[in-house]
C-alpha cells in the first residue's frame, strides 16, 4: 500500500483499491469552518435526530439522520475545486450522494477495524464495485482529534461481521504496519475500499470530532439512476445506460 507518494491520478488501476493518500491543503479552510458551524447549528434539532429506529441507531453511532445527510450544503466543499484536489482524485471525480456526516463524541462512536467494501456489500445491487473514500475533518486542530489509522498491506477483500454496534467490522486486527497522518484543516485522507482502517483518538483531551466522508468513484463505476456530484462539472448528475468517459 502506498502512503501518499502518488495521487490517485497516477495510481495504477490494480493498486487504487489498496492505496491511501494524505492530500494536503486541497479544501478551503473557510468553507470547512462554515460547514462546521452549520453542522453545529443543526445539532439537537428535529432534522438531526431522525424519526426511524434505523436513523436513531445511526445517530447513536455518531452518524447522522437521513434528512441531515441529504442536505446538499455538504457539497459546498467541492464547489470551485482547487487544482490540487482535482490532481489528487484523478478519475474519481463523481461523488456519491448523500455523504456521511459524523460527530464523534464518545467511545461508542469509534468505528472498529473494517474495509469500506464491507459496507458496500450490505447495499446489494446498489453497491459500488469500487470507490475511494475522502475523509474531511472539520475541526481547526484535526491532528489532535479522533482520526483514522490504517494498516499498510495489500489486503484482499476480507470477511466482515456486525460488531460493536456497527453493521460491518473485522473479527481480528489486520496484520501489517499501522500508519496514521497528522492532519491540518483543509487536508483530506483519500483511500481505496480495500484499505483496512479504524478510528483512533491520538489526544484523549480532544475526544470530539466533526467530519465529512464522501465516496468518490469513476463515472463508469456509477450505479444507474443514482445521484452524484460531478466535481469537474460543479453540479449533480446521474449515469444513464451509457456514460462518456473523459
| Total domain count | 1
**Spatial extent as radius of gyration:** 17 Å
Q: Average pLDDT value?
A: 92
**Biggest pleated-sheet summary:** 8 strands, antiparallel
CATH homologous superfamily caption: q2cbj1_9rhob like domain
| Overall outline | globular
In helices, the fraction of residues equals 10-25%
Q: How many helical elements?
A: 6
How many strand segments?
13
Task: Tell me about this structure.
The structure is a single chain. By secondary structure, the protein is of the alpha+beta class. Helices cover about 15% and strands about 25% of the residues. The protein starts with 19 loop residues before the first strand and ends in an 8-residue tail after the last strand.
Short description:
With 246 residues, this protein is of the alpha+beta class.
Task: Give the tags.
246 residues, alpha+beta, Jelly Rolls, 8-stranded antiparallel β-sheet, 3-stranded antiparallel β-sheet, 17% helix, 24% strand, globular
List the helices and strands and how they pair.
Layout: E1 20-23, H1 29-42, H2 46-49, H3 53-60, H4 66-69, H5 83-89, E2 94-96, E3 100-104, H6 116-120, E4 132-137, E5 147-152, E6 161-163, E7 166-169, E8 177-179, E9 188-192, E10 197-200, E11 209-217, E12 227-230, E13 235-238
Antiparallel strand pairs: 1-9, 2-11, 2-12, 3-11, 4-9, 4-11, 5-8, 5-10, 6-7, 12-13
Amino acid at each position: 500500500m502506498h502512503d501518499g507518494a502518488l495521487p490517485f491520478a497516477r495510481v495504477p488501476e490494480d493498486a487504487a483499491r489498496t492505496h491511501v493518500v494524505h492530500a494536503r491543503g486541497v479544501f478551503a479552510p473557510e468553507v470547512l469552518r462554515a460547514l462546521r458551524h452549520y453542522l453545529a447549528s443543526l445539532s439537537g434539532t428535529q432534522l438531526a435526530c431522525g424519526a426511524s429506529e434505523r436513523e436513531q441507531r445511526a445517530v447513536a453511532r455518531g452518524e447522522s439522520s437521513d434528512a441531515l445527510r441529504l442536505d446538499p450544503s455538504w457539497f459546498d466543499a467541492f464547489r470551485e475545486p482547487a487544482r490540487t484536489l482535482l490532481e489528487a482524485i484523478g478519475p474519481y471525480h463523481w461523488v456519491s450522494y448523500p455523504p456521511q456526516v459524523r460527530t464523534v463524541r464518545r467511545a461508542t462512536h469509534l468505528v472498529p477495524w473494517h474495509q469500506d467494501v464491507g459496507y458496500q456489500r450490505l447495499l446489494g445491487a446498489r453497491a459500488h464495485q469500487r470507490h475511494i473514500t475522502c475523509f474531511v475533518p472539520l475541526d481547526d486542530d484535526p491532528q489532535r482529534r479522533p482520526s483514522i489509522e490504517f494498516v499498510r498491506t495489500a489486503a484482499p477483500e476480507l470477511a466482515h461481521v456486525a460488531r460493536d454496534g456497527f453493521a460491518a467490522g473485522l473479527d481480528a486486527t489486520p496484520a501489517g504496519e499501522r500508519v496514521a497522518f497528522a492532519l491540518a484543516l483543509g487536508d483530506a485522507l483519500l483511500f481505496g475500499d480495500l484499505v483496512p482502517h479504524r478510528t483512533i483518538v491520538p489526544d484523549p483531551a480532544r475526544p470530539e470530532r466533526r467530519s465529512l466522508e464522501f465516496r468518490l468513484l469513476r463515472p463508469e463505476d456509477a450505479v444507474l439512476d443514482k445521484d452524484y456530484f460531478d466535481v469537474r462539472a460543479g453540479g449533480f448528475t446521474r449515469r444513464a445506460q451509457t456514460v462518456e468517459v473523459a
